[in-house]
Amino acid sequence: MGEARKVVVPDGATVRLGHVEGDLLVGWDATIEGEGSPPRVIVDGVARFRGDCTVIGSLEAKSVECRGGDLEVEGDLKARTRVRVRDGSLKVGGSLEAREVKVDDTLAVRGAVKAGEVSVGNKVDALGDFEAREVSVGGSLVSHGPFKAEKVSVGGLAKFNGRVDVEDLDVGGHVELAGGRVEKSSVGGSLEARGPLEFSSIDVGGSVVLAGGRGGDVSVGGVLVTKEPLSYFGSIDVGGKVELKGPCKGRRVRVGGSLKVEGDLELASDLRVGGSARLTGRLSASSIKVGGVLRAEEVRAEEEVRVGGLLSAPKGIEARYVEIGRRGRIEGPVRAEEVRIGPRARAEDMWADEIRLEARSRARNLYGRRIYIERGCVVSGEVKYVDELVVEERVRLAKEPEKVERPEDIGLGRPEGREG
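Below the sequence we write its predicted structure tokens.
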């Protein structure tokens, strides 16, 4: 039988084969038993199956095709070109190797997968190592071993229990990662990494949970949580809520809702928060703008700090320009080139080249080159100035203002026009 150019197996038959020099045509619901130990079938040409067929042992062929049913290979499956299963599933008990694998329904492999392109209509369940150039799955992908691919596209769930190494990941639903490297990921639903992740960009519509790592830009529509510190990131842009485990260092952070940081946050560029920002450590950035509440041990900015509500930093606030909004409050000492306290706002001690208290605001001690106090303000401590003091009507000062000769006399150690 092995010497024939074509071997035909009747419907429902069970046939033992070793080497087929030509093509192998297997009828509906037939079974092929391999020869040798372990059993194996080698087909020089194409192996074609119809209906639900089983190969007991390993199968090697130029290409493998199955139509109208499920194909099960109990050992290894190797195709020198392609594996194609139409209107059915493929189950491999050993390893799978081919240039192209295309299955309309489900692909289940217990061993390793090595292929150029893998396309599956429904779901993939792979227990061993998985390596491919491109993977496309309509439903779900579950990989239990190390996974490596250039491009992965999954319509629903993608779960990687081993280390990943992927250039481009596109998932419509939920992603679970054990950790590794995903250069670029785009996810419609949510992404969770249980181990450190290296990345260049993450774009997720819903929520992201990271267990530390290092990367580039993160864009999330809903919530971002890091359970371990990110040693470095590019930009974080989140519509809802951000919770970061510090210390962490990055380029910039922009949050529509709230930001919480356990530890220090260091940014090379700006921080923008629409609602509240609460840190247990130190905050430093080029520019800081918070619409509601900003709490930190210490706040430092190269350029500006603007807060709409409460700015609390017991160890101090330092920037070129500091501004608190209407009815806002500053808790902690302020050092800046210019400070503006909004109407009806409150502040404590301030050192600046220029200090302006707007109408009906309150402060404790003011030390500045130029100080402007608008109508209805209250200063409960000292007012000391170098060059100019302007006090409008109905202002209450606890002590008589004092003019000094030198900025150093009132703790203004940095000359006006200092370098950044």
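Residues 415-420 have pLDDT under 50 and may be disordered.
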